[in-house]
Write the structure tokens for this entry.
Amino acid sequence: MFAITIVLAIPFGSYIAKVYAGEKTLPDPVLNRLDKLLYKVSGIDEKREMNWKQHMYALLTVNVVWYLLAIFVLMNQSWLPLNPDANPDQTADLAFNTGISFMVNCNLQHYSGESGVSYLSQLFLMFLQFVSAGTGMAAAAIIFIALKNRTTEKLDNFWALLVKSCTRILLPLSIVVGSVLAFNGTPMTFNGKDTMISMQGDTVQVSTGPVASFVAIKHLGTNGGGFYGTNSAHPLENPNYFTNMLEMFSQLIIPLAMIFSFGYFLKRKKFGWMVFGVMTAGFLLLVIPTMVWEINGNPALGKMGVDISSGAMEGKEVRFGSAASAFWSIATTVISTGSVNSMHDSGMPLSGMTQLLAMMTNAFYGGCGVGILNFFIFIILAVFISGLMVGRTPELFGKKIEAREMKIAMIVALLHPLLILAGTALAAAFPEITSGSLNNPGFHGFSEMLYEYTSSAANNGSGFEGLGDNNPWWNITTGIVLILSRYLPIIGPVAIAGLLAKKKFVPESAGTLPTDSATFGVMVLAVIVIIAALSFFPVLTLGPIAEYFSML
Amino acid sequence: MKTNLLPAIRLTAATLVLFCVVYPAIVWAIAQLAPNQGKGEVIASNGKRYYANVGQQFTEDKYFNSRPSAVDYNAAGSAGSNKGASNPEYLQTVKARLDTFLVHNPGVKEADVPVELVTASGSGLDPDISPAGARVQSARIARVRGISEKTVASLVEQHTQGPLLGLFGPSHVNVLKLNLALDQLR
């Protein structure tokens, strides 16, 4: 399954590179017209070149517009159309959190889809799933363009990159995936809840809706926000093992393809393979132990004498089993999707640790576009450190890396641990406010808080869902973390790339440190491991590691 | 900011139409060709309609029991228990479920009870149990219904769905379909 995705990601990466380079592609005859129409209606001159600052102004402006609209829709959904289940308005703090978290591609959901939003809100959130993924991809494309071997300030047009990401990459795939899901039993209807009487005679309401279209983009855009409360564990959102594979493919394909497209775009395929190698090594280091722990099952239940050969099944679905659920839990946390097909809160303690580590590094594959941005920071750090080690000027693609770029890179790299640790420390410092929202006692309860802030800072959106998170404390604090952890890690890397693009190009020579070699790959991996280990080991010992030892 | 604001608003309006109206309309139109017009897979039996993929609560001894659920199979919502693996209160709950199961299924040993029969699913609406989870209930079903264990065993066999293409995923039994078949025996 994973292998098929990689094989398909390579040609798709070449397609993405062509899209951003403005070269001819297969769907041009249709999509050229659609794009032209969008530019015309919006009054956009797509040929106007922007520098990195103009790009960021445009990006932030359009995000503010989306956010204000989101708040309006969520707080007025009760009387707006398409609300067959008569769901109430969201409160101000919940709408604040929901609006931000969908705008920043996180989809931390402090509500349940069945009762917390109307169909209109669902459709609007689906709109945000498209454009927030497009925003991340457009930002990555700016970096691609800036790193080409030349000296320039002109980095294409933000609107064009955004529109192309949405119409040429996300939309066609979403239509295909959504249709296949509908044929496999995922509902696609605008009727309200259906009533049925069970075989034992209970009257049960079944929540349906336009689920198939939502689930397709939630994965392709690595958003992860579920139509239903339990996300892809819900039997209508993810009806069988085939749809489980399809949804896994959907969330992996664009992040993987972006890596290869990075290589194609810069005409440095070997560099793309280096990035892919490092990311895959990190992914496997996390996913393999997690699968082993989940397949081995919960020893505390084993002691009771039940047969735990099928694994740790609390919070998991029989049709997926423990292996596929464990694989998903790491894929969704490394890629910043945050959709779940099992409840992470009920996994084994050390699986909780690997899920946390996946989000703490946040650079193995990573979300649509932003994975490349995060990884770019680690590349800059690795170039600098290895430059110092061998006594050469740090250079990347013929551009010198100097103090200013390094400062930005360090700020972005340290922001992530700062937000996670400060948030968790703050929550732990006010037990009179936060302890009531915990679903589990002891070390595991601490992990629930840690997970919530890690998921927010990584813009991931999964959760230890036992946490009672729909109250002002969680809505507001995680909302603030979400904003900071989305826009600074976009602006930082784009600024570095923009600054590098302006610099004089120094042709590579024998004195240049090659950045596409395996040695450099090991260096990048080491930088990631050191930063993650130094920042997060202490806090992990307080949560999952302590829980693990308490169970021995 | 000013140069961007107007294009931002106009582009938002245009893409809203594309992604909130055109895109769902295309998927909806295609879904009309799908089984049950994209309203989810439905089984009709004895004038009643059931959602094949939405699990139901089965606690009576004459039916194969479904898994425990944190929402009692109320499909208006969905939730897992979200209990941590080491939570003492949770471990007591599981022990109580196991004891109850053993009372209802005399002669069954603890080691024969697969773990999913005493743990809650992720969605609270899991439609399936494992083949082992069905087999361990077969003796009870046969006794309560006064039919031979062989008949029950072959019914379980018939309703076991193997891995996808014989390769991917665990074998599982849809509890609703199995219980419908049980009722049709008579």
About this structure: Chain A is about 65% helix and 0% strand. The mean pLDDT of chain A is 90.
